[in-house]
Write a structure and sequence with these properties.
The structure is a single chain. The chain is built from eight helices and nine strands. It has about 210 residues and is of the alpha/beta class. The protein has a domain of about 140 residues: P-loop containing nucleotide triphosphate hydrolases (Rossmann fold). The strands form two sheets. The chain has a five-stranded parallel beta sheet, sandwiched between helices. Strands 4-3-6-5 form a four-stranded mixed beta sheet. It starts with 6 loop residues before the first strand and ends with a helix. Guanosine-5'-monophosphate binds next to strand 5, strand 6 and helix 4.
């Protein structure tokens, strides 16, 4: 029996490996729908409009907010980021598991609107490794990297708000753990109401 689609929120410090992890999750497993956010930040080399993000001007983004076209939005290091409503609602209706890769303010806003959402926080094994990954990615200036590391120190204060913590040390292991957590969430009674109703009727209890 099919269970309801789950809304999964993945957050973590910039450079923790969230993007890499998501890419591998959809390569290795079927049935995941990744939400594509809107942002006012500039595309990095290799990023395409409509694939990694919908890249918008500040005016375009503010219009989306006014039109209630985003289910949440936040500012991060001087730019707007937000989740388009249409895709998430459409995929949830189809019963798909939808993954939002968003920062903490957005994650908490989602938990309020969708109390059954599963919130995961991805951390690197150490701060030194985080800096190495951010520098190794080579997509931000030293100044932006420092800004993101300062933001990471703030975000670390909110880890307890999440349901699960994933340490992204070995990528393969972390992807397996991520999938296992989502798989386990499908077994919660709240997501199996149809079956519960069926077995109760079959048993004929009162
Ligand atoms: P985020 O999306 O969280 O900002 P990225 O997915 O862009 O992070 O990863 C940051 C950098 O770290 C990239 O260069 C990526 O190749 C590398 N990386 C990601 N996961 C791992 C891992 N498990 N081990 C080593 N390097 C990793
Ligand atoms: P980046 O610029 O590295 O792609 O993303 C910066 C931060 O913005 C990351 O923490 C990422 O998770 C977050 N982010 C991406 N999309 C959204 C979104 O739609 N909403 C919110 N609140 N945060 C987002």
């Amino acid at each position: 029996m099919k269970t309801k689609g789950i809304l999964i929120v993945v957050s973590g410090f910039s450079g923790a490996g969230k993007g890499t992890l998501m890419k591998k999750l959809v390569e290795d497993y079927e049935g995941y729908s990744l939400s594509i956010s809107a942002t006012t930040r500039s595309p990095r080399p290799g990023e395409e409009n409509g694939r990694e993000y919908f890249f918008l001007t500040k005016e375009e983004f503010e219009k989306r907010i006014a039109d209630n076209a985003l289910i949440e939005h936040a500012q991060y290091c001087g730019n707007y980021y937000g989740t388009p409503r249409d895709y998430v609602e459409e995929q949830m209706t189809l019963g798909h598991d939808v993954i939002l890769e968003i920062e903490i303010q957005g994650a908490l806003a989602i938990k309020k609107q969708y109390p059954d959402a599963v919130l995961l926080f991805v951390a690197p094994p150490s701060a030194a490794e985080l800096r190495r990954r951010l520098m190794g990615r080579g997509t931000e200036t030293a100044e932006v990297i420092d800004k993101r590391l300062r933001r990471a120190a703030e975000e670390a204060q909110g880890i307890e708000e999440y349901d699960y913590l994933l340490i992204n040390d070995d990528l393969e292991t972390c992807v397996k753990e991520l999938h296992a957590i989502i798989d386990a969430a499908h077994h919660a009674p709240v997501r199996n109401e149809e079956f519960i109703e069926k077995i109760r009727q079959e048993l004929g209890g009162n």
